[in-house]
Specification:
- The protein folds into two domains: about 10-45 and about 285-380, Aspartate Aminotransferase, domain 1; about 65-285, Aspartate Aminotransferase, domain 2.
- It has 14 helices and twelve strands.
- It has helices at about 10-15, 20-30, 50-60, 70-85, 100-110, 130-135, 150-160, 185-195, 220, 255-265, 275-285, 290-305, 330-335, 365-380; strands at about 35, 95-100, 120-125, 140-145, 165-170, 200-205, 225-230, 245-250, 320, 340, 345, 355-360.
- A seven-stranded mixed β-sheet has the order 2-8-7-6-5-3-4, with helices on both faces.
- The longest helix is centred in the C-terminal third of the chain and has 18 residues, at about 290-305.
- The chain is globular and about 55 Å long.
Length: about 375
């Protein structure tokens, strides 16, 4: 019999909280015909050529373990994609394939950080970044996604005065939750800040495909020797449940890649073999029609919300992050009473008066959901 009162949980895991986004999913499951604008996954199916590549791989008995870092064919195709489409080169042997960007982030944080290290988050941020930072007991610093060179200079001076050794900078570009794409000028100034502080940039580009106005510049194009790039197929090809992502490292950071691969051997082991062949097909089959549909929805969201709520113009991803007159948590509860499901914004920023809207839903649900949202805003104002 186990002794009463004995704690079997680690101190690390006690710092990890359940995802508020999953709570929104659970809330939606209890409502009949919800207007669910909380879902962060595309509503279109996995493209047929991608399905067929995976089915063929299964039938060809490509179901075994693969090399820990991924099959050579996929890593070579990713390397070619970055060189031809993004303008920077990563050697295939410095690319790690895993079960999605979330797994890569977990492996990366475990590999890179010691307790007490310092990390800079661009705010608003994807909720996994502060969660992993707390899990690893890191010191977090924040800068607004609207940063300019003077604000970076001020932060660099502050960190220098406090003798802070910044280890990494992390952000999603395009942003989850705001849809903002950091400009080339911002990335250039951030690169200078990274060089000044000696920090590694972790650029999460999982929403890269959803770049509606062709604004995105990969950070590694500007500062290849200090940038780790993350990407994957969950968003671009709706492969959320198939779990496939990849990370690229410059040669001078190959030691990080090597230790991540060692850790993956004892955890994830490898990404599913057939899904890796599907990844090659995904890179060979862009989603033109689906992208055009998502852009149309983005435009509708902007037109509907303009003049009714303050929000950052979403240039990418498939989210908007409007301000609301209550705390995001209270607003989301009131919205749920009207069958509208949104995500409270406090999980993405210290500011409490925002909610996240996802427009990766049908036009019918989007129109009805936004109508409820606007009416609720008017009632509260």
């Amino acid at each position: 019999m186990l002794p009463e009162g004995k704690n079997y949980l680690s101190n690390k895991i006690l710092r990890m909280e359940s995802s508020e986004i999953r709570k929104a999913f659970e809330l939606a499951s209890r409502i009949e015909k919800p207007l669910n604008l909380s879902i962060g996954q595309p509503d279109f199916p996995v493209p047929e050529p991608v399905k067929e590549a995976m089915i063929k791989a299964i039938r060809d008995n490509k179901n075994s373990y693969t090399p820990t870092t991924g099959i050579p064919e996929l890593r070579e195709r990713i390397s070619r994609k970055w060189k031809e489409e993004n303008g920077f080169y990563v050697q295939p042997e410095n690319i790690i394939v895993s079960t999605g960007v979330a797994s890569l982030l977990m492996l990366l944080f475990e590999t890179m950080f010691n307790e007490g290290d310092h990390i800079l988050l661009v705010e608003p941020y994807f909720l996994i970044y502060p969660s992993l930072s707390k899990f690893n007991n890191l010191n977090m610093h924040f800068i607004s996604e609207d940063f300019d060179p003077p604000s970076l200079d001020s932060l660099a001076d502050k960190l220098s005065q406090e003798k802070v050794q910044l280890k990494a900078i992390i952000f999603s570009n395009p942003s989850n939750p705001t849809g903002k794409i950091l400009s080339r000028e911002q990335l250039t100034s951030l690169a200078g800040f990274a060089q000044k502080t000696g920090a590694i940039i972790i650029s999460d580009e999982i929403y890269e495909t959803f770049d509606y106005d062709k604004q995105l510049v990969s950070t590694a194009f500007i500062l290849p020797e200090q940038t780790i790039t993350l990407n994957g197929f969950s968003k671009s090809h709706a492969m959320t449940g198939l779990r496939l992502g990849y990370a690229g490292f410059p040669e001078n950071l190959s030691a990080i890649a090597g230790k991540m691969a060692a850790l993956q051997q004892y955890s994830v082991v490898c990404a599913p073999h057939p899904v890796q062949w599907a990844g090659i097909a995904a890179l060979d089959n862009p989603i033109q029609a689906e992208l055009a549909s998502m852009k149309k929805r983005r435009d509708y969201v902007v037109q509907t919300l303009e003049g009714k709520a303050r929000f950052t113009h979403p240039s990418g991803a498939f989210y908007a992050f409007p301000e609301v007159p209550l705390s995001g948590e209270d607003f989301s509860l009131r919205a749920a009473e009207k069958k509208l499901i949104v995500v409270p914004g406090h999980i993405f920023t210290a500011k409490t008066n925002h909610i996240r809207i996802s427009y990766a839903v049908s036009e019918e649900i989007l129109e009805e959901g936004l109508s409820v949202f606007v009416n609720l805003l008017q009632d509260l104002n």
